[in-house]
Structures are given as C-alpha cells and as structure tokens.
Design brief:
heterodimer, A: alpha/beta, Rossmann fold, SH3 type barrels, Elongation Factor Tu (Ef-tu), domain 3, 3 domains, five-stranded parallel beta sheet, 24% helix, B: 369 residues, alpha/beta, Aspartate Aminotransferase, domain 2, Aspartate Aminotransferase, domain 1, 2 domains, seven-stranded mixed beta sheet, 10 helices
Chain lengths: 366, 369
C-alpha cells in the first residue's frame, strides 16, 4: 500500500527539522517545503539579520536536513502573498492604534492557506509544522486543537485561527514533546541544527526592530503627539502611538514633574486625538474584553455563555471567566479578576482545559 | 575529462611542459567544436556557461559597434522570447549604455517573421539577436533568413543556440550568424562550460578584461577539463544526433497527442512541427505551474514550467504572453524535455500520471482566503 504523503513546512530550525525526521521514522512519505517569506531588507547585512527569516543560510540548512533525511525539498516563493496578507495588515493595525500579532494571519493565510493548498495539490494528506500544539479527534468526529505538551513552548495560541478543514489536514509532530526532548531527538537524529539559537522576534524584522521597520515602511503611522493623563492634562510628548502598548511603563518621556510622583503606565492609545493616555497602576486593568469576529475551532459557537479561561497575549497567564458569544459573531469575555493589559489588536484565545475553543482579535476592553 | 583533473593539471596559458600538454588538449577542443559547427578553431571561445557566451556576444559586439558621440549609441533588435541571458543583457545595454532597443513581434507559435526584421532595421542598427530555438516552447526561428538580411546590411547577427546542438546540425555559415552561444551541458557535456562562436572580423570589445586567454576575447584561466569534456560531448552528439532526433520527434508527437487527448483544457505551445524534436510544451487552463512541476517531480518526472513563481503570486511567462496566450492559461505551463535516454515507456508513464496531477492541482488551486 502506498504510504501516506505529508508535506512538512521546514524553516531550517530545530523544531520543523525534528518534525520532518519524526514523520520519516513513522513511515510517512515526507516532502519538505520551505516558504520564502518577505523580509525587511533594510540594514539586513550578515551581522544583523539574526531574526530575518529565510536567509540563504536557513534555506541551505533546511535543504541539508532534507538531504540527510532523503526527502524531496522545495523552497518556494511566497514573498508577495506574505507581504500582502501578513505584513501590510500588520502595518494597518498599527495605524489603527492597536498592537497586532501577525502570526494569526500568517497561520491562517500562508501556512494553512497558501501552503496547505500546495500540499494538497501535491497529493499530500497532511501538512505538518514544527508548532508545539496537538490535534485530536473527538468521538463525534470533530477535530480539536490542544495545547502542546511543553507548557512553556505551547503555541496553540497562534494556531487558534485553524478550523475543522485545516485541522483535518494538520499534524504537529513535536507537540507531544518538550523542547528539551526535541533538542535531544535532534541530536539523536544527527540533525545539524540541534543547538541552533531560537529566533524570538517577528520573522520579517531585522533584529526584531519593529520601530525601525515602521519608520522605514510606514512613517505616516508614527506621528508624534501628546501624552495625557486621564484628566486630559498634557504631561509629555510621545513619538508615535505604534511605539507604545498597553501596560507599558518604560520609555515614557514625561515633562510634568508632578506626574512622576507615582509610576505611570500606558492605559489607552487614543487614535482620534493621536494621544497616549497614561495613568496609575490602579487605572489599568479591565474586567472584560470584546472580540469582533470570534472564530470557533469546532466551527460553531457555543449555545450560551461558556465557562472557560482566556489568554490575552501569547505569553500571558490564562485567566478564568465567562465567554459570551454575541449574535453578531463577536464575543465578550468577562474575567473573574480584572486583567492588567487587555490590548486591542492582540488575540483573545479561549481554552477549556487543554483544548482551544477559539479566539479573535480584541477590539476593546469594555 | 578525467585526466585533466589530476594528471594533466597544467595551466594551458603556461609555457612549461605541464602547460603545453593542457594547451594541446585545449587546441584540440577548439578544433572539435569549430569543426562541429562549421567554424575555424580560432573562432571558438570557451566560456563559463551559455549565459556568459550570450553576454560576451551582445555586450562585446554592441560596445564595439557603438556610434561614439551620439546621444543614442546605436539600435539593437531582439525578440520578446529570448532567454534571460540575452533579454537582461539587452535591457542593460539600453538602461546603462543608452542603446535603443526594439522587440520584434512574434506570432502565436512564438515565431519571428523575417519581414519584421527587415522593417525594424534602421541606419543606426548595430546588432540583431534572435534565438535559434526557444527554450520554453521549442519553436525554431528563421535564423538563416534573418542572418541573410543582416549580412546584406553589414549588421552583426547573434543567435542563442543553447537548446539546439544535441538535436540540430548547426552550421554557422548556413545560418548566416556572426556569433552563436552554446552551453555544454545541453549537449551532454559538463555543466559550467559555454561556447561562444565569434566570426573572424566581427567587431568586438572583450567585456572581461585581463590576459590573453582565448586570444584575448575571454581573458581568464580556461577550464581545460570542461573544454575537453565539451569537445568529447560534441563528438558524441554528432554521431547520435540524426537517429536520436528522428526517434525523439516520434516520441514527442506521441506525448503531445496523448496529453491533448487525455487532459482537459490543454493546449500545445509553440509550433506543432517546426520545433525542437525533443521538446513538448503545453499550457493548462487554471493550473498553477509550480505546483504541477512539484507534483510531477514527486511522481519521478523532472519537468519545468515557464511561469516564474517569484513571489507566491504566480507570474505568467513573458514568452507565453508575447505569443498571445491568455494569463489564465500561461500560468499553467509545462515543458517536457526528452533526452537520448528517454524510452517509450517513460512517455506512457507520464501520460498515466499527468491527467491526475493536473486534475489535483486544479482542484486545490491557490487559496484566496
């Protein structure tokens, strides 16, 4: 019988390399594909391109690993579609005075959009990635997305955009392991990337410098303006709203002395007035978060309010509360305890135990 | 080739006896190549690749023919279906050196009409470049007629013949060319060796400057083993060419008939008969050429596509667009090159998997979600 064909999204890094190696060992017919994504070219010389994705070296690493595993390997261009579906909306979100997470669009439109279609066109049944998450099938036949085994590395948050169609074709081979186990396996498999440092920042930025990126590519979204307290008094000057996020304390240049009596935090980005609103720790925090278009992994919203927990940032701690689906497709999450940094633009992702219920982009904290 | 990696390691440009041995081998390689194309040994220049041969010819001749002191140093005529080695060089001659550039029209088969060449020629025309056989669709060009026109007017005529030598007998005098570019791996020689034929007396300024290698027309240490391998390959194809071309043309036609019969919404590209004997090329409506190429590769068929997917938003091949093929078809182009080793069973096997692959690639077209 013919082997089941699986396409692995390879990056040259350790996680996707081990994913590929595991699938080969499990007896799949594995095909490696590396996507060439758009990356900021400014200042991207050899010394500074630490986080720039798809460098010639990364392509060579991925190709070498595919060669080692004796699997076909294709690096295919996706710069245009990535720029259009991921980078441009990310810039637009900053222009709208929010703090976006581009990984959602990437997973939806690029990895499990563009690349999944390529995989299916190649006759593959599955697309595997090196994400730390798991897919399971419920008794009713539906697929569910589960947290990865390694709590510290869990990436289910950025995968909440997947639905039934995508999960039916998704595999996350390293999701059943911890990062340490993955590194150990990489060594056992003899993969040369076992010890490679992890990239932390957005893949298309040079050295994670999103400020420089915005200044170069969208200077109009970063206009200086007033810093105001909640009483409406101007107490300083900001350099452009995209350079601040809710809960931020450092880097605020305040001119009024009295304002510095207690620490001040960013509590709101006021787009209409291009003003940065700051306040005390006591003024920070919200009991609710509203999401405009709530996506449910199961494909259907719950019948009524749902007791679950929510993450409001990739690295945030989960908070318990109630999810109230709205008839308009949005949702409101009511936290049991006020959350400090509810930030428009970030994702609110709901969990029931290890299972991802769904999520959406936060539009407001009320 | 093998002795020239180790035993005969002399630099052909050196006077000492090691060098002499290599120089003798290189002389022989020039003679073999020259003889194969009806040229003198001294008119053959070994280069690093076919692209380099095209570059040397276009830039070397255009710059030598430049009308000094004029706002436009001269006029170059070429086609919209050239390989990038010619297209990009011509474009650079325009952009950086100020030459005026005319692209000849091509018909639906990708063929140039010599009458259009006649009409395009101007008093300031310094160079005409028309490929012998197109690499994407295989159509043969009326090079002999175009060459004759150029000769009457004293205009140097270059032809990129990279696709041809394994299948067509080339004679530089019959073809009326002043320069001709070849690439050794296209006639079963080593990769990374090109050949430029440059007719004695053709105006030429060496674009690479340096020592006196290749009579100063391509300075730089010559790849002796590569040149020897090239010559051996040229001898080999000279013996095989006639029989193989006839055999492959029959297989090609069988492949073409099979594809048009079994794959819905498929068209042959290029001229049905006046084409390279080993090359079949198609377009399929609403198919992503890159996905089709990968799907066939996974099935064990190494084919190519003319559509360049350089960004994730596929771009149709300019060659196919120039031939008037609509973009929705041009995006799904497929080129199948047969070779001396291709057997009838290979054609049958491809005909077996291709309809399925096309169907699947069509079904999972690029998502717009």
């Amino acid at each position: 019988m013919a082997k089941t064909r699986v396409v692995v999204a390879m990056s040259g890094g350790v996680d996707s390399s081990v994913a590929a190696a595991l699938l080969v060992r499990q007896g799949y017919e594995v095909i490696g594909i590396m996507l060439r994504l758009w990356a900021d070219q400014a200042g991207a010389d050899a010394a500074t391109n630490v986080n720039r994705c798809c460098t010639p070296e990364a392509v060579a690493d991925a190709r070498a690993i595919a060669h080692l595993l004796d699997i076909p390997f294709y690096d295919i261009h996706a710069e245009g579609i990535f720029k259009q579906r991921v980078v441009d909306p990310w810039v637009t979100a900053y222009a709208e005075a929010t703090t976006p997470n581009p990984c959602f669009n990437c997973n939806r439109s690029i990895r499990f959009g563009f690349l999944l279609q390529k995989a299916l066109a190649l006759g593959a049944e599955y697309l595997a990635t090196g994400h730390y998450a798991r897919v399971a099938r419920k008794a009713d036949g539906r697929f569910c997305l589960l947290r990865g085994k390694d709590e510290k590395k869990d990436q289910s948050y950025v995968l909440h955009v997947l639905g039934q169609r995508e999960l039916a074709h998704a595999m996350f081979p390293v999701g059943d392991y911890t990062k340490d186990e993955v590194r150990a396996m990489a060594r056992d498999f003899g993969l040369p990337t076992a010890e490679r440092a992890e990239s932390q920042d957005l893949c298309f930025l040079t050295q994670g410098d999103y400020r420089g990126f915005l200044v170069r590519h969208a200077p109009e979204v970063a206009r200086p303006g007033p810093i105001m307290n909640t009483r409406g008094e101007v107490i300083g000057q900001h350099e452009g709203l995209p350079f601040y996020t809710i809960g931020q304390r450092k880097g605020l240049r305040l001119t009024t002395r009295s304002a510095q009596a207690e620490p001040l935090y960013v509590i709101r980005l006021d787009r209409a007035n291009n003003a940065l609103i700051v306040g005390s720790a006591g003024e920070l925090g919200a009991r609710r978060a509203r999401v405009r278009a709530m996506h449910y992994v199961s494909g259907e919203p719950p019948a009524g309010p749902l007791r679950c927990s929510a993450k409001i940032r990739y690295k945030a701690r989960e908070a318990a509360g109630w999810l109230y689906p709205d008839p308009d497709g949005g949702a409101t999450f009511a936290f049991d305890e006020p959350q400090r940094d509810v930030t428009p633009g970030q994702g609110l992702v709901c969990y029931a135990g290890d299972e991802v219920i769904g999520g959406g982009i936060i539009v407001s904290d009320s | 080739m093998r002795p020239y990696w180790r035993e005969v390691f002399g630099n052909a440009a050196s006077l000492h006896h090691f060098g002499r041995e290599a120089a003798a081998a290189l002389d022989e390689a020039h003679a073999v190549l020259g003889c194969a194309i009806g040229a003198r040994a001294g008119e053959v220049i070994f280069t690093g690749c076919g692209s380099e041969a095209d570059n040397l010819a276009l830039r070397g001749v255009a710059l030598a023919m430049r009308r000094t002191g004029k706002r436009e140093p001269g006029h170059i005529i070429t086609t919209p279906i050239e390989h990038q080695a010619v297209a990009a060089t011509a474009q650079q001659l325009k952009d950086l050196f100020g030459f005026d550039l005319t692209f000849l029209p091509v018909d639906g088969y990708g063929r140039v009409d010599p009458d259009d060449v006649r009409r395009a020629i101007r008093p300031d025309t310094v160079l005409v470049s028309v490929m012998l056989a197109n690499n994407e669709v295989g159509t043969l060009q009326p090079v002999r007629e175009i060459g004759a026109l150029c000769r009457e007017r004293g205009i140097p005529f270059h032809s990129d013949a990279v696709q041809a030598p394994a299948y067509l007998l080339l004679d530089v005098n019959a073809l009326n060319v002043d320069s001709l570019a070849l690439s050794s791996h296209k006639f079963y020689g080593p990769k990374g060796v090109g050949v430029l034929y440059l007719r004695e007396g053709t105006p030429y300024i060496p674009p690479i400057t340096g020592g006196g290698h290749e009579r100063g027309r391509r300075p730089g240490t010559v790849n002796v083993a590569g040149a020897v391998g090239s010559a051996a390959a040229m001898k080999y194809v000279s013996h095989q060419r006639e029989a193989q071309s006839a055999r492959l043309a029959a297989l090609r036609d069988r492949l073409i008939a099979g594809v048009l019969d079994r794959v819905p919404d498929a068209r042959l590209t290029g001229h049905p008969t006046d084409r390279l004997p080993h090359l079949a090329s198609f377009v399929f409506k609403d198919v992503d050429g890159e996905s089709l190429l990968m799907a066939l590769d996974v099935e064990g068929f190494a084919v190519s596509t003319g559509s360049a997917c350089t960004s994730g938003n596929p771009e149709p091949s300019p060659v196919l667009l120039a031939m008037g093929i609509p973009p929705a078809w041009a995006l799904g182009s497929l080129r199948v090159s047969l070779g001396y080793d291709t057997r009838p069973e290979d054609i049958d096997a491809l005909l077996d998997v291709l309809p399925r692959c096309v169907e699947r690639v069509r079904r999972y077209g690029l998502s717009d979600g």
